[in-house]
Design a protein that fits this description.
Strand order of the largest sheet: 2-1-3
Distance between the termini: 40 Å
Shape: elongated
Strand content: 5-15%
Number of strands: 3
Length: 201
């Protein structure tokens, strides 16, 4: 009778479901969106007779104020997903997905009406609200849209990948103590036996 060679258990977790990869990707995308808001989204050419400067650079955090907040929400959600439970991951995924939609809509609005998005900055520079000026958008709103779209993909993948993640909590350790016949639970039982005057051995 020959002994059978041990069969190695095959890993069932696909590469795309790796916790570190997905969390890192979500974090980097959120940082990318936030980074675009610190750059110029709209360039405004003003009339020198009405403003002290002919060119006005409008950053993303002024042209689309919501994008900055939504990027921070996505960043916090991505970090929280690494330690969240199954139900919490679904909630976090929904929050990141909604943030991604908000980022895309805000950036698309700027591309569709750059003059309207720059009105606050124009009024601050000229002292006149509702003025007309020549405006042009940069590439950064498009970058925000692309990063926001990938954030949405990460949000969809998050609860699906979470099924392959192992949860490690104090309850798991306590459970392993019971199953293995040793551990904190057995020690407590032994002390209880001694307190009753019984020999635990």
């Amino acid at each position: 009778m020959t002994a059978k060679a041990p069969v190695k258990a095959a890993s069932t977790q696909p590469r795309w479901a790796s916790k570190s990869t997905l969390v890192l990707t979500t974090t980097l995308l959120a940082f990318a969106v936030f980074g675009t808001t610190t750059q110029t989204w709209i360039t405004v050419h003003l009339d020198p007779a009405t403003a002290s400067t002919a060119d006005l650079q409008v950053q993303g955090n002024k042209a689309a104020t919501a994008v900055t907040a939504l990027a921070l929400v996505s960043l916090a959600g991505g970090l929280a997903a690494s330690i969240a439970g199954r139900i919490a991951r679904w909630i976090i995924a929904a929050i990141i997905a909604l943030s991604a939609v908000g980022i895309i809509l805000a950036a698309v609005t700027v591309l569709g009406d750059p003059l309207g998005a720059a009105q606050g900055s124009i009024a601050g520079a000229t002292g006149v609200s509702g003025g007309q000026a020549e405006v042009a958008t940069t590439l950064f709103p498009v970058v925000a849209i692309v990063a926001g779209a990938f954030l949405g993909v990460c949000a969809v993948m998050l609860p699906l990948a979470g099924r392959y993640w192992k949860s490690r909590t104090k309850y798991d350790k306590a459970g392993s103590g019971v199953a293995g016949g040793s551990g904190p639970v057995d020690e407590i039982d032994s002390w209880d036996s001694l307190s009753r005057g019984e020999d635990p051995t």
